[in-house]
Amino acid sequence: MKTQATQPKQPQTARPPISKQRLWVFRLLALALPFLLLAGLECVPRVAGYGYPTALFLRELIGGQDYYVPNDRFGFRFIPPAIARTPFALRLPVKKPVNSYRIFLFGESAAPGDPDPTFGVGLYLRTLLHERSPGRDFDVVCVAMTAINSHAILPIARECERRDGA
Fold it and tell me: What is the pTM for the complete model shown?
């Protein structure tokens, strides 16, 4: 029988304790990592061009002048695309003319006069304002949409706030 030579055990060296600064850096990285991953998951599709804008107004150059036009996909945020309604067609100059008033009209189907826009509240309001103040320019912008509720009207109002109302 052969005897196996036993190898001498190597003495284990104790690791030096981790410094407090390094421990805090590790903790902060551990807390930040999920947020960084989520930010990356959000940014990569945007940079790659995936998706569509969700704002109510899109900026377009028409005839050499900047205008805001309605986003046909705005309703997709609230209603499935198969049944979503689109905002009514309009063209709003980015720069509001001097000495003019821009009034945004919110609401649902009755405000734009659905199904016949010639009976919309905006047309009546514009006519009344021109009759009362003939020397002033009033731009009544109907941003109402059919089949929406207050959950959709709130983002519309917030966006209109940045578009030089009144």
Answer: 0.70
